[in-house]
Amino acid sequence: MSSRTTTSKRRMVVVAGSFGAPVLPDELTAEVLVRLPFKSIQRFHAVCRSWAAVLSSGEFLSLYVTFGINKMEENWRRRASKLFV
Predict the structure, then answer these.
(1) Which helix (H) or strand (E) holds 25?
(2) 1 band by pLDDT with thresholds 50, 70 and 90
(3) Which range marks the domain in which residue 78 is found?
(4) How far apart are alpha carbons 25 and 8 in whole angstroms?
(5) 11 pLDDT more than 70
(6) I need a labelling partner for 68 at 20 to 30 A (CA). Which of 2, 7, 36, 84 fits?
(7) Domain tally for the chain?
(8) Which ranges form a coiled coil (predicted)?
(9) In a domain, 38, yes or no
(10) Are the C-beta atoms of 33 and 55 separated by less than 8 Å?
(11) Does residue 59 lie in a domain region?
């Protein structure tokens, strides 16, 4: 497989393989995946090895739980504020 680097004034994207898909940093991948439902997370383990590694990491699991708790609290506050208006 060959890889090439494309540069512009705004960003640098590394393109790997013959598909031409940009390689995203693991941190960005995790930030996107953390917002998905658990069932989707389970399926995305099979997408590629790098996603499986991100999804299996302790950092991602901690981030996923924290994001879920914060989302539940936000929904609870929104509903509670409607009750007392």
Answers:
(1) none
(2) very low
(3) 25-83
(4) 18
(5) no
(6) 84
(7) 1
(8) none
(9) yes
(10) yes
(11) yes
